[in-house]
Amino acid sequence: MRMIKHTVKSALKLSAHHYPEFCAKAHYFIKFKKKLNLTNPTRFNEKIQWLKFNEFSDDIYTLCADKFKVREYVESKGCGEILNQLYGVYDNAQSIDYKSLPEKFALKCNHGAGYNIICNDKAAMNIAKTNLQLDEWMKQDFSAHFIEPQYKKIERKILCEKFIENDRGGFPDDYKFYCFNGKPYAVMVCVGRENGTPKFYYFDMDWNPLPFEDTVELIDKNQYPPMPDGFHKMRDYAIKLASDFKFVRADFYLLNGEVIFGELTFTPSAGLDVSLQEADVILGSQLKL
């Protein structure tokens, strides 16, 4: 069965450029076991699929999906102070001068999601293995994996950024604002990444819990974490960065009350997020096409 699924996914990837709508419908059916309605979409995942075919040809989506060029957009919105420190930009892995880098840093490719390598000890880093992985990622057309056209035209680069860590030496909490027509409606808070068992909690803009994912446990126990210092600053940055889009998820890190920009995301989980079943309806009602 696993071999069959792998074969189907490979075939869909090869067909993505010639038959993108067919492939999107196939991915959706495989994930949700129901047909994708692009004529009258109602759920959040359906509407994300609709946006792929009706919005993402605009150059602004290529710019903002690009993890390097999006820095220009953030600065143009008057938010340059929240950009993470950039150590270098490279055309290929062989161009990286590791000797000039600090002991801790983060490497990422700019043309997709999940292309990240975190180095918290350069002395222990296997540079040859790291370069092989980066070179492999640089060859991939991420847009074809699950029909995400905003990544297609990105000029591929490798970025090296400052390693972000909290006072415990772990990843800071990150906050993902779901913004509709320029207004943030919900924020997803991810905590506990450093221990390998992250929790995902959802709140509205008044910090009331929303019944999505792990938040249900908090609601059942009537135990909610306090609104963090810096929340309103993040919300205000999200408003500025979301003003041009029907939907965007604006992601930030919060470190000692200071906001650090993460990325702008237009297709969370490629519009195939099975974990947001109730949210699929609620968030879908917020997205006006």
How would you characterize this protein structure?
This protein is α+β, with helices and mostly antiparallel strands. Among the domains are: 60-162; 174-265, D-amino Acid Aminotransferase, Chain A, domain 1, CATH 3.30.470. The chain contains nine helices and nine strands. The strands form two sheets. It has a five-stranded antiparallel β-sheet. It starts with a helix and ends with a helix. The mean pLDDT is 92.
Provide the fold topology.
Elements: H1 2-15, H2 20-32, H3 44-54, H4 59-65, H5 70-76, E1 86-90, E2 105-109, E3 116-119, H6 127-139, E4 158-162, E5 174-180, E6 183-191, E7 199-204, H7 215-221, H8 231-241, E8 247-255, E9 258-265, H9 277-286
Antiparallel strand pairs: 1-4, 2-3, 2-4, 5-6, 5-8, 6-7, 8-9
Helix pairs in contact: 1-2, 3-9
Unreliable parts: none
Mean pLDDT: 92
Q: Strands of the biggest beta sheet: in what spatial order?
A: 7-6-5-8-9
What share of residues are in beta strands? 15-25%
Count of alpha and pi helical runs: 9
As a whole number of angstroms, the C-alpha radius of gyration is 19 Å
Number of DSSP strands? 9
Largest sheet composition: 5 strands, antiparallel
Helix content: 25-40%
User: What pattern of helices and strands is seen along the backbone?
Assistant: HHHHHEEEHEEEEHHEEH
| Class derived from helix and strand content | alpha+beta
Query: So what's the oligomer here?
Result: single chain
Principal-axes geometry comes out as: globular
Distance between the termini: 38 Å
